[in-house]
Amino acid sequence: MGTMWTAEQIPDEGGRTAIVTGANSGLGLIEARELARHGAQVLIASRDLAKAEAAAAAIRLTVRSASLEVAQLDLANLNSVRTFSQRFLAGHRRLDLLINNAGVMAAPYQRTMDGFELQFGTNHLGHFALTGLLLPALRDQPGARVVTVSSNAHKRGQMRFDDLQGERRYSRWGAYAQSKLANLLFAFELDRRLKAASLPLISVAAHPGYSATNLQLSAPPLHERLVMRLSNRFIAQTAEMGSLPILYAATAPGLEGGSYVGPDGRGEQRGYPTLVQATDRARDAADARRLWEISEQLTGVTYDLPSLLRA
Fold first, then answer.
1. What average pLDDT does the segment 195-217 reach?
2. Contact at 8 Å (CB) between 250 and 35?
3. Which of 47, 83, 95, 180 could disulfide-link 137, Cβ–Cβ 3.0 to 4.6 Å?
4. What Å distances lie between residue 38 and 7, 59, 70, 145, 195, CA to CA?
5. Catalytic residues
C-alpha cells in the first residue's frame, strides 16, 4: 500500500452501484460524495428521508454530475431493513458496493423495534440482515465488495454470549465496543464463507480512527458530549481524513478479502489508510460462527450460499 493515499486516487467507478448506510451526514456523506464524484451511482440510505434528501442536494452542489438516489432505512427496525432491500432488488439488477457505515455510539440502554439492545441491534444485527437480504444483487458481481465499518473500540470489546442484549448488566461503552467487535467478526466470517462458496465478492472492514463527526455528539449524555466536543476540535482528525480508510477499503484495486484498513498514525487514531491488525478476538473463527448462527436466529435472515461447505 502506498503512503498518503487520498480520495483523488479512487479509480473510475463509472457503471458501479453503491449503497452507503447512514450517508446523510458525517463519514457516510463524504463517502457518498467521493464515490459519486468518481462516477458511481450512489444510494444514500438514511433513517430520516428528509436528511437524506438534504445530503443529496449538498453533494450535487459540489458534484454536478452526481448520480444519486435516496431511500429510508432504519437499521433498528428489521421491517424497515426488509422493505428497503425488497425495493432495491425490485428496482436494480446489480449492486457493486455496500458500505455498512451507519451506527450509534454509547447510547443509554434502549431497545430496537424488535426488542434488541440498541447498539448491538443497529450496529451489528441491522447490517447483518441488510447484507444477507441484498446478497442476490451482490453475489455474482465481479469486483463487488461489502465494507463493514468498525472502530478502534473493538479492541476493548468482548462478546458476552450469555448476555448479548445487556439485560443483566449494561455499560454504554461496553455495549458499543461489543457491537464493533461483532462488526469485525461478521466481516471476517462473511469473507470466509464467500471464499468457501467461490463467489467473486469480497468482504473487508475499515475504521476511521478518531475523527470529528456528529456520532460523538448524539447519543452520549451531556457531560460526555461536552468533553467530546472539545476533543473533536483539538485532538480528532477531520471527517475528511477519517473517511479515507473506508473509501480505500471500498475502492482500492487488489485489496484482498478479509483485509482491515485504518489510519497509519500512532495508535491508529489518525493518518492515511493502511492495513491494520484486528485483535485475536476479532479473528476468532469459533466466536464468529457462533455469532453468525445467533444473528440468523435473531433476524430470521439466512444467507443464500448454497455451495458453501463448512469444515
1. 83
2. yes
3. 95
4. 9, 13, 18, 17, 28
5. 176
Distance between first and last Cα of the chain: 33
CATH assignment, 14-208+237-299: 3.40.50.720
Cell of 56: 443529496
Distance CA 159, CA 284 (A): 11
Task: Answer whether 21's CB lies under 8 Å from 73's CB.
Answer: yes
pLDDT above 60: residue 187: yes
Residues 285-296: pLDDT tens digits? 999 999 999 999
Q: Where does the pLDDT of residue 62 fall: very low under 50, low under 70, confident under 90, or very high at 90 and above?
A: very high
204 Cα distance to chain centroid: 10
Contact between 139 and 96 (Cβ < 8 Å):
no
- The three cell numbers of residue 186 are 461478521
DSSP 237: B
Question: Where residue 96 falls among pLDDT bands split at 50, 70, 90?
Answer: very high
Number of H helices, E strands in the chain: 9, 8
pTM across the whole model: 0.91
**Cα separation of 52 and 307, whole Å?**
38
Which set of grid coordinates corresponds to residue 231? 476533543
The stretch 108-128 carries a mean pLDDT of: 97
CA distance 259 to 238: 24
- How far CA 68 is from CA of 57, 104, 187, 306, in Å, comes to 9, 24, 26, 33
- In eight-state DSSP terms, residue 207 is -
